[in-house]
Amino acid sequence: MVDEIKAAERYMDMIIEFGVKYGFQVLAAVITLIIGLIVARWLSRLVVQVCEKRNLDVTLSRFLGNVVKLIIIGFVLIMALGKLGIAITPLIAALGAVAFGSSLALSGLLSNYGAGLNIIITRPFVVGNTVKVKGVSGVVEEIGLGATQLSNEDGEEITIPNRHIVGEILTNSFENKVVEMTIGISYNDDSQQATRIIREALKNIPAIVDSPVPQIGIQNFAESSVNIGLRYWVPTKQYFQTLYQANLAVYTALNEAGITIPFPQRDIHMVPEN
């Protein structure tokens, strides 16, 4: 029992000695860390608010806010370690060695982050745009450092690693998508009348946007028909729905006007044998 009391006294003496010697340093480090985190969060929100007032892209605003927050937290950690009397130089050298080794192992991940940073800074597209890259098309829902999220008319979510976007041929049609098609009419029909009928049929479909204006005209002369070309723009997430509705409206209007949509045909001349 006496030995246990003495051991407890020794532990208490050690704790008191540690508290007297390092207590103020630990307290100063904790206070520095708490104040630094509060300031970092406040400045991050302030940066985002300033960017939003200047109508900057949401993704870019959040990225700048996070960068400011991380920089401040880094400085605060260095200050807190300094309060504890820990040497910073060897720690920085060790972190550099670890970062070099991990960069080799995580080259693919880091390339995605680098490409994401490039997208956020250069802004070839923003949230809400319609993009097509490497055969994949959809509306941009979110731009992250590692990947970009798209969605399509079928409700599917498409995740594209950013390294597959930067350096590729990218098509950005903004919020709409173009519909391109041809309709053949007979050479005996009035092409100007057919063009007017098609234009009126498209005007009755609310989903077709007014700007850009639908483009309608003779595209080429085929063997059995005069081909009328159509180009009009629709919201990306209503592409097929509007396309089918427009096809039915145009077909019905041409039929009601007596405009013939011919099928391929050839004239065969029989030469009698002598």
Shape: rod-shaped
Mean pLDDT score, rounded? 82
| Corresponding CATH architecture of the largest domain | Orthogonal Bundle
Helix content: 40-55%
Spatial order of the strands forming the largest sheet = 4-3-2-1-5
What is the beta-strand fraction? 15-25%
Task: Describe the protein in words.
- Strand 3 and strand 4 (157-161) form a beta hairpin.
- The model has no long low-confidence stretch (mean pLDDT 82).
- The N and C termini lie far apart (137 Å).
- 52% of the residues lie in helices and 20% in strands.
- The protein has helices at 2-53, 58-83, 88-105, 107-122, 191-203, 239-256; strands at 130-133, 136-143, 147-151, 157-161, 170-174, 176-185, 215-221, 226-235.
- The longest helix has 52 residues, at 2-53.
- The protein is of the alpha+beta class and 274 residues long.
- It has 3 domains: 2-105, Helix Hairpins (Orthogonal Bundle); 125-174, SH3 type barrels, CATH 2.30.30.60; 176-256, 2-Layer Sandwich (Alpha-Beta Plaits).
Write a brief structural summary.
With 274 residues, the chain is α+β, with helices and mostly antiparallel strands. The chain is built from six helices and eight strands; from the N terminus they run ααααββββββαββα.
What are the salient characteristics of this protein?
274 residues, alpha+beta, Helix Hairpins, Alpha-Beta Plaits, 5-stranded antiparallel β-sheet, rod-shaped
